Automatic annotation (TrEMBL):
It comes from Massilia aurea. The keyword Membrane applies. Residues 430-482 form the PAC domain. One of its GO terms (molecular function) is cyclic-guanylate-specific phosphodiesterase activity. NCBIfam families: GGDEF, sensory_box. One of its GO terms (cellular component) is membrane. Residues 656-910 form the EAL domain. GO terms for biological process: cellular response to nitric oxide; signal transduction. Coiled coil: none annotated. Residues 54-278 form the CHASE domain. Keywords: Membrane, Transmembrane, Transmembrane helix. This is Diguanylate cyclase (GGDEF)-like protein/PAS domain S-box-containing protein. InterPro entries: Biofilm_reg_signaling, CHASE_dom, CHASE_sf, EAL_dom, EAL_sf, GGDEF_dom, Nucleotide_cyclase, PAC. It catalyses: 3',3'-c-di-GMP + H2O = 5'-phosphoguanylyl(3'->5')guanosine + H(+).
């Protein structure tokens, strides 16, 4: 761009130089034309002056002739004049002369206010001749002696001897015309005195125009000429101008691009005066003069722009390429980094996958599960995780098969059909359990879970899941199920399964119209075995009996253990063997075989109750209950017995139930009373004590004996509060009698096994003694042998604690239970009570008599007192007395009586009659 401008400026200057050269030539031409015009004017003056300079008078006509040709040729001449120097005294002459030429003419002068008559002067310089007259009439007679312009020029011309030019002044004949001036040349007479001068009045403007026109330079508007009658551009001296003057043009042509080449000033010297000729070129369109430079500039700019554009586009392209390269590079770097990250991530993922797979394999191998996969047709494609080892089935046998192909019976089961439906619905399934037979022929149970697998399009690609061998669990469940339905000890069905079997049997009986017998078998004296020989012996006995019952029955029959020593047998009648009591007897005989318990042989018998279905009044659901009632009756009638249920038994059972219900309120309703049976010293015959025996005075049942309700009270546990009441009442009564002044007696109170086992026995006992104020020595507690049969140690401890209170302890019904010398020696017992069953027969049963005498001897040897129960006869009394029995109790002396009657006995002072004189026999005859 700079080069273009440089070139442009250079070429511009060349163009200017060229223009300046051309202009200079044209300006010179114009200056020369002006100079020539001026020269012509001077020549005309000189010619005219010569006319007068000859010394001969020049007539007006001659002057007119002479100048007329010149006037014709030079249009720029306003007039030819001859100025005469006129002394002041000749004014009139000259005026007369002039009036002759032109009437009325007087000498005039020009003043600023216009042309006025000339004042009187000493000398005048009057325009005497003027040609042409027409148009110049005002000049005739004009006095110029005071016209400085003309006089100065005349003086110059006289001094130089050359024509001189005046400055510009206003003409009298044309006061408004500008740029007029005179060329003057003095006219001398022969004496050399200036008599006047010739003058050519010039119209400066026309002079220059004609000069230029004559040179053919007037046309053309592109160059202007200004001429000043001065050496400087004084507007007042402006002679001619056909265009802008120098002052104005200077403004227009200024500019750094346009040096002042269009202006030329030339100073001409003519007629003793400097003439300034200014030639100025008209402003031209810049383009016309500077086409080349402008073209160059435009071309340069174009080239520059194109070059710049090219460079720009090339640069842009390069930049874009560079940017692209940079972008690609960064993308490449990024993708490289991404790639590296991906590789690292992939490596990490692969490692994680590897670890996960290892973990999976380890877990699978450690877990009991295996992992399986199936294809879209639900055929196994893979089973891993030690399947063969865990299941005992070779994997190869399963690959390519569906589950129901290798477990053929699967779809027959409900769970199998559900499984198939789920598979067809493409749903997950859980805990599908099925049984298979492994390669060794063993039955096994599998449990499998699975879920469908879909591809990205949602199309099923197969199933996968886990499986485990649950054979152990299944067997355990079966065992648990078996345990739930069977007795643990004997393996026989328990009550739950019994109900099922009974329902089945009844259903069978209903269909076959053959009866069902339900036998309830209770072992006799089982409690005794259990208590005396320990639970293990009891268990052995139960297991043995169970096996015997099982062996005695057919497979179709059911034997179940109901509870404790109770068994239930269900017998369905079959065509080949009608049911009969002989069947019952056979079963009883099977049980009644000796059993080895430890090293002792034990004979076990049982009591059996039988209920038959169908029987009038027996519902199927009451069969076992009725059998139980019948068994209860059998037990009552004596052991090793069986009874068939009859509706009357039911009445008794109902009464039991009624008693149980009424018993619960009896204590609150104060329905119990105590009767007292005296205990008499055999030696003195005096009452020494009494046994408190409970009676239940029921409003409807009347006086209920203890045999009807004590057992029920024991079974229900009601005996504990009832017993406490008995103890308290008996103690209080005894104390009352003592306080009443009766002899100090001992009161005996029965303590049931249930009471003996009660936790608060000691506390209750102590509280009773405390509350009643009875001396402990006046209380005797009667215990039965069965209390000591089971766990002896705590019983011993308890007895010692009771003994420590000071109470007496006696063993009731001695000889009927498990009588043992060992406990007699270990226990702190004071009294043995001989059971009345022995006493009853001592007079006619040698064995009982022997037993009684033996008990007495034994007791005495052990330093125990002996009291005989149930003494009804004198013979019995005598026998006992003769054998040294210490005390007696029985109807012979008194029945148990209410307290008031007992008090009457005391008051009466009843005694035993004295012993008979005849000695009692030692032993009764056999
Ligand atoms: N045949 C006959 N019997 C005689 C004779 N002398 C007394 N007896 C009866 O023999 C039983 C003696 O009581 P037990 O052997 O302790 O037998 C008692 C005792 O085991 C129990 N019992 C009675 N009262 C209570 C009590 O308050 N608490 C507890 N736990 N059991 C009691 O009920 C059983 C029966 O009592 P009871 O019916 O009062 O029957 C009493 C009594 O009336 C006689 O000469 N001949």
């Amino acid at each position: 761009m700079a080069a273009s401008f440089g070139l442009f400026i250079g070429v511009s200057h060349l163009e200017y130089d060229n223009m300046a050269l051309a202009f200079g030539q044209r300006a010179d031409q114009r200056v020369a034309a002006v100079r020539q015009g001026m020269g012509q004017a001077f020549e005309v003056l000189a010619v005219t002056n010569q006319l007068f300079s000859r010394g001969e008078p020049v007539s007006r006509e001659r002057f007119a002739d002479f100048t007329s040709a010149l006037l014709e040729r030079h249009r720029f001449i306003q007039a030819f004049n001859f100025h005469r120097v006129v002394p002041g005294n000749e004014r009139a002459l000259i005026e007369a002369e002039l009036q002759r030429v032109r009437p009325g003419t007087i000498l005039t002068e020009m003043t600023p206010g216009g042309q006025v008559p000339a004042p009187l002067r000493t000398r005048y310089h009057v325009i005497e001749y003027v040609e042409p007259m027409a148009g110049n009439e005002a000049a005739l007679g004009l006095n110029l002696s005071h016209n400085a312009a003309v006089m100065d020029a005349l003086e110059l011309a006289r001094s130089t001897g050359q024509p001189a030019a005046s400055s510009l002044f206003a003409l009298a004949q044309a006061p408004t015309s500008q740029a007029s001036f005179d060329l003057v040349q003095p006219v001398f007479d022969k004496q050399g005195v200036m008599r006047g001068n010739t003058a050519v009045v010039l119209r400066g403007k026309e002079l220059v125009r004609e000069s230029l026109a004559a040179a053919g330079l007037l046309g053309g508007g592109d160059i202007f000429v200004s001429v000043y009658a001065s050496d400087h551009a004084d507007p007042a001296a402006l002679l001619f101008s056909n265009g802008p003057t120098s002052r104005a043009s200077r403004h227009e042509f200024a500019g750094w691009l346009r040096p002042d080449h269009g202006m030329q000033n030339t100073i001409l010297h003519a007629g003793g005066r400097a003439w300034r000729v200014e030639v100025a070129a008209a402003p031209r369109p810049f383009l016309a003069d500077h086409l080349a430079s402008l073209s160059l500039l435009c071309g340069g700019i174009l080239v520059t722009l194109m070059g710049a554009a090219f460079v720009q586009s090339a640069g842009e392209r390069a930049r874009k390429v560079q940017q692209l390269v940079r972008q690609r590079t960064s993308e490449l770097r990024r993708s490289n980094r991404q790639l590296i990250d991906d590789m690292v991530a992939r490596e990490r993922a692969e490692k994680a996958l590897l670890h996960s797979e290892q973990r999976f394999r380890q877990l699978v191998s450690m877990s009991s599960d295996w992992y399986w996969e199936q294809d879209a047709e639900l055929r196994f494609t893979m089973i891993t995780g030690g399947f063969t080892e865990k299941s005992g089935v070779a994997v190869q046998g399963l690959i390519g098969k569906t589950r129901w192909e290798y477990v053929p019976g699967l779809l027959d089961s409900e769970s199998g059909r559900t499984h198939l439906a789920k598979m067809q619905a493409r749903e997950a399934f859980n805990n599908l359990e099925y049984q298979i037979v492994d390669d060794d022929g063993n039955a096994r149970w599998f449990c499998v879970n699975g879920e469908p697998v879909f591809d990205e399009a949602g199309v099923l690609t197969g199933y996968r899941g886990t499986g485990s061998d649950i054979t152990e669990r299944k067997l355990t469940e079966q065992r648990v199920h078996h345990v739930a339905q069977h007795d643990v000890l004997t393996g026989l069905p328990n009550r739950s399964l019994l109900q099922d079997r009974l329902s089945q049997s009844i259903a069978f009986a209903s269909r076959s119209e053959r009866p069902v017998w339900v036998m309830l078998i209770d072992l006799d004296r089982f409690k005794f075995v259990n208590d005396s020989m320990g639970h293990k012996a009891g268990d052995v006995l139960l297991v043995t009996v169970a096996a015997r019952l099982r062996a005695a029955l057919r497979d179709a029959d059911t034997v179940a253990r109901l509870s404790g020593d109770e068994f239930v047998v269900i017998l369905n009648e079959h065509a080949d063997e009608p049911l009969s009591p002989a069947v019952v007897q056979r079963i009883m005989d099977a049980v009644a075989q000796p059993v080895m318990l430890g090293n002792k042989e034990f004979f076990v018998t049982c009591s059996v109750g039988v209920a038959v279905f169908p029987t009038e009044g027996t519902l199927s659901e009451n069969l076992i209950e009725h059998a139980d009632i019948a068994m209860y009756r059998a037990k009552k009638l004596g052991r090793n017995n069986f009874q068939f249920f009859t509706p009357s038994m039911n009445d008794e059972a109902m009464e039991r139930v009624r008693i149980e219900g009424a018993l619960r309120n009896a204590l609150e309703r104060d329905e119990f009373v105590l009767h007292y049976q005296p205990q008499v010293d055999m030696k003195t015959g005096q009452i020494v004590g009494m046994e408190a025996l409970i009676r239940w005075n029921h409003p409807e049942l009347g006086m209920v004996p203890p045999g009807r309700f004590v057992g029920v009270a024991e079974e229900t546990g009601l005996i504990v509060p009832i017993g406490a009441w008995v103890m308290r009442t008996a103690c209080a009564q005894n104390k009352a009698w003592q306080v009443a002044g009766y002899p100090r007696l001992r009161v005996a109170v029965n303590l049931s096994a249930r009471q003996f086992g009660a936790a608060n026995l000691m506390a209750s006992l102590e509280a009773t003694l405390q509350e009643t104020g009875l001396d402990a020595a006046c209380l005797e507690i009667e215990l039965t042998e069965s209390l000591f049969m089971s766990d002896v140690t705590p019983a011993v401890e308890l007895l010692h604690r009771m003994k420590a209170l000071g109470v007496n302890l006696s063993i009731d019904d001695f000889g009927t239970g498990y009588s043992s010398f060992s406990y007699l020696s270990r226990f702190p017992i004071d009294v043995l009570k001989i059971d009345r069953s022995f006493v009853a027969d001592i007079t006619h049963d040698a064995n009982d008599a022997a037993i009684v005498s033996s008990i007495i001897a034994l007791a005495h040897n052990l330093k125990l007192a002996v009291i005989a129960e149930g003494v009804e006869t004198l013979a019995q009394l005598d026998y006992l007395r003769s054998h040294g029995c210490d005390e007696m109790q029985g109807y012979y002396f008194s029945k148990p009586v209410p307290a008031d009657q007992f008090e009457a006995l005391l008051a009466e002072g009843r005694c035993l009659p004295a012993p008979t004189l005849s000695p009692a026999p030692e032993t009764l005859p056999a």
